Input
Amino acid sequence: MSEIVNEVTDASFESEVLKSDQPVLVDFWAAWCAPCRMLTPTVEAIAEKYQGKAKVVKLNVDENVDSSSRYGIKGIPTLILFRGGKEADRVVGVPSNARDFISGMIDKQLA
Amino acid sequence: MSTDFDVIIVGGGPTGLASAVYTGRALLKTLVLERQVPGGQIALTSAIDNYPGFADGITGYEFAQAFLRHAQRFGAEIRIGTGAERITPEADGTFTVGLSDGSSVTAQVVILAMGRHPRMLDVPNEKRLVGYGVSYCATCDGAFFRDVPVAVVGGGNSAVEEGHFLTRYASAIKAIHRRDRFTAQKILIEQYTHDSKVEPVWDSVVEEILGSKEVEGVRVRNLKTDEVTVMPVGAVFIFIGWIPNSDLVKDLVDLDDTGRVFVNELMETKLPGLFAAGDLCVRPIYQLANVVADGVQAAVSAEKYMESRKKS
Output
């Protein structure tokens, strides 16, 4: 597991995501989800690119059922961008031009 | 004119990565552009049981990872998450490829291996409920529908294979197909229809997906009797065919009426230096083994083309 993308849980979701000063991108994933695992290098690259400006974390949907059902996750990978405790943007599945697309989502919140 | 790369391969699925193994071994400077995930469609397949030589089968994920490593081992640069937006043939025969990050790169030849994407049903609420019960990938989303009835639409290899995968999770499967029999490979049909969870719904089409926040059911019409039924399901998995990702090159090459790229047996398009291979093209069959072979052929043809240009 890369250190740049920390794992959050149901227990830490509020402090790590909802109460964060920076926008937080949450990658909802599971070990059995091949596209999630294949998206990981892209998510890590995003985390590195926005270090100090936005946070990037991941949440395992199998182990954290509360958070994933609260946000109605019915397909993964799902990426939700939170800002000020609220959902600001969401993408389900691997978007086309994934790296640039996700950058665009975050840039919009930072602008 | 000197270029950034010898070869740019657009698409990092089995076809593009097979090309990259061969161009890499030919010591050509190679860039692979993969806009989503390496491996493409095959990475989403639960198990590959028909690739000759893999006697015990292999998961799509493992296969894709091995393929990626193989291409990288021979020196190909694989850019993941960045796609080609534009391909411009230059007057001197080279190509400039504009990328989704705004930059551009140049090459002597380009191999198109963009593959294809799943066709949508094009019915009300489908788009809105993607990720909320509408899915085109059983291995991605199936586990969210444990002990829930689901609908699987389609009757070809993908529908039957992915439908069979879903029997691990779903409580029941309505297998909705517009014909009165499946057209998949026989072994796949046998596995599927022998499962007591699977109930074929023949001669029928989905007319509407129902649900406000998530899928709650489908409205189905029987084409022979015109009878309309509402089936309560928690998810709809759609496998009704494919659309080639040929938009990028529609002005550069010849396409058939379904958008597939015409190539000859050397994987040449009508534009010298522009090759195409795999699912994107008009092919007699679309199996992993033959699209891999396509990628190999495109790479060797590209290499020969570059040699002939150097001599002249």
In short: Residues 134-238 of chain B form a domain with the FAD/NAD(P)-binding domain fold (CATH 3.50.50.60).
